Amino acid sequence: RKQKDNDTASLSTPSSPDALPAAAASPRAPPARASRRVASPGPATARAAPMGRGGARDGAAAAPPWHSLPDEVLEHAFSFLPAAADRGAAAAVCHGWLGAERRSRRRLAVANCYAAAPRDAVDRFPSVRAAEVKGKPHFADFGLVPPAWGAEAAPWVAAAADGWPLLEELSFKRMVVTDECLEMIASSFRNFQVLRLVSCEGFSTAGLAAITEGCRNLRELDLQENYIEDCSSHWLSYFPESFTSLETLNFSCLEGEVNFAVLERLVSRCRNLKTLKLNNAIPLDKVASLLRKAPQLVELGTGKFSAEYHSDLFAKLEAAFAGCKSLRRLSGAWDAVPDYLPAFYCVCEGLTSLNLSYATVRGPELIKFISRCKNLQQLWVMDLIEDHGLAVVAGSCSKLQELRVFPSDPFGAGQVLLTERGLVDVSASCPMLESVLYFCGQMTNEALITIAKNRPNFTCFRLCILEPRTPDYVTRESLDAGFSAIVESCKGLRRLSVSGLLTDLVFKSIGANGNCLEMLSIAFAGNSDLGLHYILSGCKTLKKLEIRDCPFGNKPLLANAAKLETMRSLWMSSCSLTLGACRQLAEKMPRLTVEIMNDPGRTCPVESLPDDSPVETLYVYRTIAGPRSDTPDYVQIV
Amino acid sequence: MAAAMSYVHADVENLKATELRLGLPGVEESDKMPSPPSTPRAGTKRALAGEHREVEPKAAPPAAKAQVVGWPPVRSYRKSCFQQASSKTKEAAPAPVVVKQEEAAVAAAPPAAAAAGGSLYVKVSMDGAPYLRKIDLKMYKGYRELREALEAMFLGFSGDAGSVNPSDFAVTYEDKDGDLMLVGDVPFGMFMSTCKRMRIMKGSEARGLGSSKE
């Protein structure tokens, strides 16, 4: 190590212009170059030192020591590591690699926008071309996070505008994106190509107009399930007539009208358009004419697919779809009169993804349609498909990998005949099934055990029994045995959501067997602190834990405080936590942010409350940025 | 449940006497109320069994169970499908206005979530608020509940609750003709059927329009 100190003096000298050609010409870089590349000594360089010295003595015949590789070579090598985890591992090898990796990283995913400050992220990774930032906790999707919580995209956009002028892709999920953000994006990045907004809010079609007008190289505009204020229908018109680079256009979540003539011209001239997802404002016959203009589409979302049956419209649709030889993914909010479904038959064979989760169509025509989709890999449906429909799916779609069944009427009187049977059938007959999201009204341990035996290859298993704390409807026991079978059998399980009547025992099983588990969602389950303790002391790879309405208290939280720093975040609402424990946790773990949520409107400062005050919602996450400064009244950082 | 139902009826009868009126003084409201939805309280989201003729009365009891916030865990985007799905079976899908002329600048938009009598979501904007909200008009029995719900929703944006002066606000709505109307002039039922979106106006535009409370 001491020897290396001499070398660090030359750190600041920039690489001489002939360094790269020399390296390229002869990979056996002369040992003399080694001194320039070494940063402050790290453990690996110390280990590599003997190699370096040996190389120096042996001369050019030896392979170059790894620590002497020029940055450009390292960066090129790292470009073959697209996965962020691999790049992170490479960066941890030594300071040389750390520098090369961070300077060359092109894609950055920030899973929690408060885990790091935007400026720090931009400074650390100056060459990023594609960034993804996620904001609010997952349970915000279900209304558990009041408005104005935070997760504003503006600081990220501002930092990116400053530090990443070559940014090409930006993706925000569960964040507040304003029109100003969109305007800044449009004016700051001259080669901006991809904008993806998922479950965001705070912007309007005026912001979209800024994007369509300003981003001359836009390839993808992907708006998924956002709340967009409708200012005018003209945002589409701002695409210049010369603009032809669009490959993806998804405005399915937009509620207002769009200028159809403009849309049609846009679709006509963008010959690379692969994905087109329309909103509810586009009626069926317009869909047909769009398809005729864009037969090269790979993905189509039809919007509201409802119309009275007219045979000429049917013929039009059938002809239009017949021309779409490349169509692989289909979605839409189909209130379809089932008589139209046969118009799609010609594309069924080619479909790999079918999203009917907003479609209220039901009955034999639906089932017949799905049964023709022999190559389906991904199926999202409503429970209107019912057990017998899923039995048909099981028999027809042998390549199915992902199944999601959503509830059509969760508060209804159980008129939908979807039970555990459907899931058992699919698990038995679809050997590649690995991801399931299933809402149903009843379940048995036997069914779950069968499913677990059928499908040890599950990576994602999310079961939601609609009524909280529902037991096995046959034996009236808890569903501990069933879910235990799942975690014991599915060794590669990464995501799990449990429901129904569950005791602490199931968590013992999960803690012991969930060795790949990264995300766990628990609601209305468990008896005591033990349940939480099992989870936090087990589940070695757990990243996200979200819990609601469980009798888990302070002790397991404090006993496993260190675990929380190995996780991305923990959400606990309506449990048995008190303020004192949260204070202790915050004190013990300075690199965690401990956030408490009260009812909005009740802005009692947390400092004045006693230790035994109950905590309604706790949200804890690790961060290197310190406590955030944009909390609303009802959020207090302990 | 019987107690809850009787509460609803009693309240409906007294509604006129106790109702907060947003219209200008002297304007008389007709007494015609829509048949009260079977929700025991405003703000509860559930299928309105009273509207659906084919649904058995036993759809009413689950209302009590359905009041857990955020359960089942489905995105609010999906919730608007629920009522549509449950009421779809007997009713034909609403036929949208199919625009024949290709020159038509704007395609007609069928009402998004207002189909088939399940719910009536309209957007509510408030001047100065960073984003809008949506409310289901069918959740409210009258103007007073609607006003209370709006106040609860938008309190955060007007600063300290105590300093909110009702006459600084006017709740307006855009009707079918596209005109901006003051909320409260017409019977609640008529308002529900003509309201396309709502806007809470603040400041000088609103002063003098909002009537004094009680």
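Residues 107-146+153-212+220-227 of chain A form one domain.
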